[in-house]
Protein 1
Amino acid sequence: MTVTPPLELAVRDGSPIAVVRELAGTMLRNAYGTSAPPTGARARTDLRAHDAVASTLVQLEALVAAGLEIGRRDVLAALDRAGVRGEPAGAPGRVAVLDLARARTRRFDVVFVLGLEQGSLPRRPRVEPFLDEGTRRALDELRHARLVRPDAASRDRYLFGAVCPRPRQRLVLVRQAVGDEGSPRDASPFWDAVRELFDGDDVRRYTRRQPLSALTWELEAAPTERERLRAVATLAAQAPDEAAALARENGWDRRLERALRAFARPTRITHGRALRLLARDSFSVSELERMASCSAAWFVERYLRPSTIDKQIDRMLRGSILHAALQRFYVKLPSAVPGADRVTEANVEAAVHLMRECVVDAVETGLRIEAGDLDRRELEQGLQRDLEQLVRDEAASASPLVPRHLEVSFRAFELAPGVAVNGKIDRVDGAPMGAHGIVIDYKSGAASSAAEIRDRDLLQLPLYMLVLRRQLGLEPLGGVYVPVGGGRRPRGMLRAGADEVPGFSRRDYLEPAAFDEAVEAARRTAAVLVERIRSGDVRHDPQGGECPHWCDLWRICRKDRP
Ligand code: SF4
């Protein structure tokens, strides 16, 4: 058999249909030879392409036979439009796109459930134009007409529950966080229900976000003007000049400009009325500390102050009940355990008993919201456990000091000209008749060391020490955070020297000069923070440059998340 080289074939005069047929045959022969039948996935695809070419050519020949003139361009156009059958459904690597009802009876390696947005799943109930639900029900009762439709939400819940266990390896739930225009979309209740089944850290670790820009078409392939505009806006993020030129050419300048303004997320407070709200005389120490940790977080938590509609037992409520229980305990200790001015090994069991009573009282009076019995018991038992541990730790403490002042409030305490703070010190310990004292601050999380107090601009202990000196007339020997729960040790900053208070981590003792400097540094930092608040200087400036993984304020502060 004589084989004509492909290039000669392509340029040969004659019927283009015959040329293409021969060319297609040559390509298939050259790819797989003639000694064995083509097998394998790739060969099957090529054979299907060859079939598609052959059947297109047969149709073109029919047109020629009918008297039409078919040129090279016509053949090329027909081949361009010819479709090639894909792999049959069920072939490896294929994806089955099914609705929930059809997917619920089959098994798959991986299942993606799409559309977990409010209003999509469960679907909104259909509004019937002629007969409302009540009339249908009445007709059903009277005439057994079976007009009432099954509840769509219950059916969708059943279908969703039936599909979730279908995958052998992995279930992926997908929802749109924003619509095509970038406006937020709420999650389906099914989405929230699944998330609640897992640990919050796991949910965060396995949740992947895809920005809207990742779903934009390539400019050349964008099928509509709207998609082309979105493609240009995406291009503007990487190649602004090129995007601007394209927009100019197509008359999209103003629309691109508008889209680009959406990238700017100004955080500074500039409105006069808003700034007037910030021109306060006095600021709480804890809010200055929040400002130091991230000014955007301060803005959301202390200025906007969003809160949930349904009150629940949260960290704040637990903390206030815990403080109330501790306050009662130290007030009652001297009378409940006669002669006791602090907890010791000798009176620890009586002190634990007293603490239990104080927790019961504090929960009774402090829990002012509707809470279920289970939540209430969980709160009470958690506090009992943590505070009993605190009492036992105090009994074993080497510090010789005793509680002397509880819940010391201070207002408009002047740190510098025009800079005043307010707050409340949980407890001040001192020698019964001495002129020295240390500040005690209860913490529900981990306590911070002297180095962390300096590095993270923690203000409470150093500023409270200034209050100790000026308002209570006690010379501060230090301050410690006492963690409640979790078995962690008290940490803080203490003055080293002959009169130092023993019993704390050696690394938290500072030489007198360093100790005084730490207190002064806190005073200076507070003054700078007050000035920043008054001038509305809000930024995305988390300490250390990275947003902590647990900060979920990004939805409000509008910080870009990777
Ligand atoms: S997400 Fe980041 S920038 Fe926003 S408040 Fe939290 S830490 Fe600050």
Note: Strands lie at 108-113, 167-173, 282-284, 402-416, 419-430, 436-443, 475-483, 491-495, 509-510.
Protein 2
Amino acid sequence: MDQGPGRTAETRRRRRHSIRRSERCLRRARPKWQFPRHRTLHLVSYKDWNNGGIHKYEGGNLSRLIEDKYIRHLAIKPDEPSVLLATTNDQPFHDQTNAAGVYLSTDGGQTWNLENNGLPVLRGSFAIFNPHNPSELVFASDGRGFFRGGVGQSAYNGPHTIPGAIECEFYDNGGEGVAFNEVDTAKNGEATFRPADGVDVPNKANASNGKAVGWTNDGEWLE
Ligand SMILES: [Ca+2]
Ligand SMILES: [Ca+2]
Ligand SMILES: [Ca+2]
């Protein structure tokens, strides 16, 4: 049906307006996403026969942290980025799985240990740090349900040399009930220092390292 010259002109005007509006939106949405060279990225390469494992991209360089090609998932401890948790998986039709279980590194991926104690199956979809309690691990097995565990105790900012002075605020990694016990679970003092822990660490100009442990109550301890 002939819509007449007026309708056609109106249609063209609307189309031009629509195109201009789209262009304005695109200009606004033009990506400002840049890839800073100082950004650290971890990459999991699953079942890559030549390059399988976990790679780290940092400062423009790519390095492989571990070569197990059955690593399926990686988690980074939110409050301690040097603590890494890697889950392995393999097809369940194998009589004997090639998955090795769960790897844990506390030194940024330089060394790894298998932490499979208590796990009835080595295949897993993922293991993560509980966001509400980063010292607790949650393992999602492939076929046997979920399991909870804990990150072992390890030196914070260590290893430390003895004899020598060790700052109280450098108590061990491991969390509540493992490396320390806090009666007042709220965090007093410097909120950004080891923020996941309830240990109270005020900034003090006259304290060694500029920090101390304060607000101690009966029954509280740290290691
Ligand atoms: Ca506290
Ligand atoms: Ca101190
Ligand atoms: Ca306290």
Note: The chain has one helix and twelve strands.
